Amino acid sequence: MHLVPLAASAAASGEPTTGIAGWAARLVDVLGGPGAGLAIALENLFPPLPSEVILPLTGFAAGQGAISLASALFWTTLGSVVGAAALYGIGRAIGRDRMYALWARIPLVKVSDLERTEAWFQRHGTKAVLLGRMVPIFRSLISVPAGVERMRLPVFLSLTALGSFVWNTVLVLAGYLLGDRWDLVERYVGVLSKVVLGAALLAVVAYVVVRVRSRGHKGRHRVRQGR
């Protein structure tokens, strides 16, 4: 039974059966709940795969009886934790020393910037991981610094599971309740993702501008001293 009712409903309502939505639907069709978990695990590893498509579609599948709601929530949360754990492992493999070595090669940045960031993460890392799992874009990226800083794995996994469960539940239930209008979730969360990405880009631009101006001021000061 799996996705037969889901596919029929999708076709009848004009929902997409191609692209990322079609790919996610086929995974659920073939694998059931574990397919939804696999899709979300991959979404964590490759952020361009949008959870705002996969999760509501999984909720829609649950609403059509393709899988149970409990199965949808369990497997998508497990998939989130597995994907985040892989990124944590990458961060742990990079390690603090390599991170500092890589940072030193980046223009316009200072080691003191990384030191401040590291000190901030040591103070607020648990909140950053928990809340970061509920913020588009950062929900995947936050796992890497957790690995670099060697946050205790049981703590990391617990926080990731809790934050992911909240995020997944909201989006899966939205798709479940909206039915064949599940794509409305993608629209609204997509706007939030763009806002977050835009804010991050503005912060980077502002940082670069401040650094360039700072270097310019220092250069002019040295010239004056030379005179």
Could you write a compact summary of the structure shown?
82% of the residues lie in helices and 0% in strands. The chain is mainly α.
What layout of secondary structure does this protein have?
Layout lengths: L3 H10 L5 H13 L1 H13 L5 H13 L5 H36 L6 H22 L5 H4 L1 H6 L4 H26 L4 H44 L1
Report on this structure.
By secondary structure, the protein is an all-alpha fold. The chain has ten helices and no strands.
Give the total of beta strands: 0
The main β sheet shows up as: none
Low-confidence stretches: 1-5, 7-15
What's the end-to-end separation, in Å?
Answer: 84 Å
Q: Provide a count of the helices.
A: 10
* Global morphology: elongated
Amount of beta strand: under 5%
Pattern of helices and strands: HHHHHHHHHH
* Class by SSE composition: mainly alpha
Rounded radius of gyration (Å): 21 Å
Helix content: over 70%
Overall average pLDDT: 79
